[in-house]
Write a structure and sequence with these properties.
alpha/beta; seven-stranded mixed sheet; three-stranded antiparallel sheet; 13 helices; 12 strands; 42% helix; binds pyridoxal-5'-phosphate
Length: 377
C-alpha cells in the first residue's frame, strides 16, 4: 500500500499503453530535417500545446522541457540571474531544488534572503512584506508545500511583489500543485512555473518550466540549442509525452480526484482521531488534501516507518530527497518542536488509494505505535 505519493507516483495505465505507439511513430531525432524527424518535432510541439492549454498559459509563452523539476528550478533561478541582480527572496519552505540553488547563489556572493513560514506552513506575509524591498529582483515561492500541503496564495504574493518592484521576476515551483489543485497561470501572474511528470503519474526524469512571454533566460546547459536554446540535448520524446498526457489526465479529472482525495484525508484524520493515539497535525484544513504531515507523541518516525514497511505499507518522513538528513528545515521554521519533528510522518495520497487502504493504514499505524510505546516503556 503506497502512501508516499508526494515522492513519486505510478505511471497511468493509458499512458503506458500508448508508449509503444509513441516509440514506433516518434523515435526519430526531432532535430532531423526529413519528414519523420519533423513529425517527431511536431509531436513535442503538440505536447507543449496540451500543457499550455491545461494550465491556461498564453499562446506566445514558452514551455521548456527539462530532465526534472530540479533542473527546471535551477534553470529558472540561474537563468534570470544577472551580474547586477540586487536581491533575491526565497521562502524557507522550498524544496531542496530551490532552497539549495538559492544557497549556491548566495555562496556566489549574491544577496539572498529567506522568508519565514507561519504556523500553517504558508509564507509569513508580514516577513515577506518586510524583506520585500524595492531592490528585490527575483522571488521564488512554491505553490503547494511538499512537506505539509500548505497552499501559498501565489496570486496575492505576486501582486504584492509587483507593486513594490514592477520588474521583479516571480518564479513558482508548482510540482505539488499542478494536476492536484486548479492552476491558472494567467490568474497567478507568475513569470515562471515549474512542473514534474512523475508526481502526477507520468514518468521520472521529465520536468518543464513555463516562461512568460518576453522573459529572457540564459541556458544552464549548452550544446545543440534544443528547446529554444535553453536546454540542449536530444529531447526525451517519450518522457515529454508522459508529462503532457499526465497533465491532461489530471486536469480533466481534477475535481473528481480532489474530492476523492479529500475524503481519504478526512477518513485518515478521523480514524487517527478515534484511535486514541496522541498526535499533532501540521497540515490544516486549507492544505492540499494530497499531503498530510502528522507527528505522533514520543515516537521516532523512522522506526514507525520501518514497522509499517514490514507490513507492506509505505509512508514518508518528509521530502524523499532529504529524508535521510536529520531535522526538518520546514517544520522547524514553522515552529514545530524537536520531539514532534522526530515523530513526523508524511502520508500522501494518489487517485489509486482507496478507502479500504486508509482503514488498514489507520489500524496498522495504531498497532505499530501502541507496540512501539509499550516497548519503549
Ligand atoms: N519541487 C517539489 C515541490 C517537489 O516535491 C519535488 C520532488 O520531490 C521537486 C521539486 C523535484 O522534482 P524532480 O524529482 O522532478 O526533480
Amino acid at each position: 500500500m503506497f502512501f508516499d505519493n508526494a515522492s513519486t507516483t505510478k505511471i497511468d495505465k493509458d499512458i503506458i499503453n500508448n508508449l509503444e505507439m509513441i516509440n514506433e511513430e516518434y523515435y526519430y531525432n526531432p532535430g532531423a530535417l526529413y519528414s519523420k524527424g519533423r513529425r517527431t518535432k511536431s509531436c513535442i510541439e503538440n505536447c507543449r500545446k496540451v500543457i499550455k492549454e491545461c494550465i491556461g498559459a498564453e499562446g506566445d509563452s514558452t514551455i521548456v522541457f527539462t530532465g526534472s523539476a530540479t533542473e527546471a528550478n535551477n534553470l529558472a533561478m540561474f537563468g534570470v540571474l544577472k551580474k547586477n541582480t540586487r536581491k533575491i527572496l526565497v521562502s524557507m519552505g522550498e524544496h531542496p531544488s530551490v532552497y539549495n540553488t538559492a544557497l549556491e547563489i548566495k555562496n556566489r556572493g549574491y544577496n539572498v534572503e529567506f522568508v519565514n513560514l507561519d504556523k500553517t506552513g504558508r509564507v509569513d506575509i508580514v516577513d515577506f512584506k518586510q524583506k520585500l524591498t524595492s531592490d528585490v529582483d527575483i522571488v521564488s515561492i512554491m505553490h503547494v508545500s511538499n512537506e505539509t500541503g500548505a497552499i501559498n496564495d501565489i496570486a496575492e504574493l505576486v501582486k504584492i511583489a509587483k507593486n513594490i518592484n514592477p520588474k521583479v521576476i516571480f518564479h513558482t515551483d508548482g510540482v505539488q500543485a499542478i494536476g492536484k489543485i486548479g492552476v491558472s497561470i494567467e490568474e497567478l501572474g507568475v513569470d515562471m512555473y515549474t512542473m514534474s511528470a512523475h508526481k502526477i503519474h507520468g514518468c521520472k526524469g521529465v520536468g518543464a518550466l513555463y516562461i512568460k512571454r518576453g522573459l529572457k533566460l540564459k541556458p544552464i546547459i549548452f550544446g545543440g540549442g534544443q528547446e529554444f536554446d535553453l536546454r540542449s540535448g536530444t529531447e526525451n520524446v517519450l518522457g515529454i509525452y508522459t508529462l503532457s498526457k499526465a497533465v491532461e489526465n489530471a486536469t480533466q479529472n481534477l475535481n473528481k480526484n480532489y474530492s476523492n482525495i479529500q475524503s481519504l484525508k478526512d477518513e485518515f484524520i478521523n480514524g487517527i482521531d478515534g484511535s486514541g493515539l496522541k498526535y499533532y497535525l501540521h497540515s490544516n484544513n486549507d492544505c492540499s488534501p494530497y499531503i498530510v504531515s502528522i507527528s505522533f507523541d514520543k515516537c521516532r518516525s523512522e522506526t514507525i516507518l520501518n514497522m509499517l514497511n514490514d507490513k507492506g505499507i509505505y509512508v514518508g518522513n518528509g521530502s524523499a530527497c532529504s529524508s535521510k538528513k536529520s531535522g526538518n528545515r520546514i517544520l522547524e521554521n514553522m515552529g514545530v518542536n524537536k520531539l514532534e519533528i522526530e515523530g513526523n510522518l508524511r502520508v500522501s495520497f494518489s487517485k489509486y488509494n482507496t478507502s479500504e487502504e486508509v482503514t488498514v493504514l489507520v489500524k496498522e499505524l495504531r498497532n505499530c505505535i501502541t507496540d512501539y510505546l509499550q516497548r519503549a516503556r
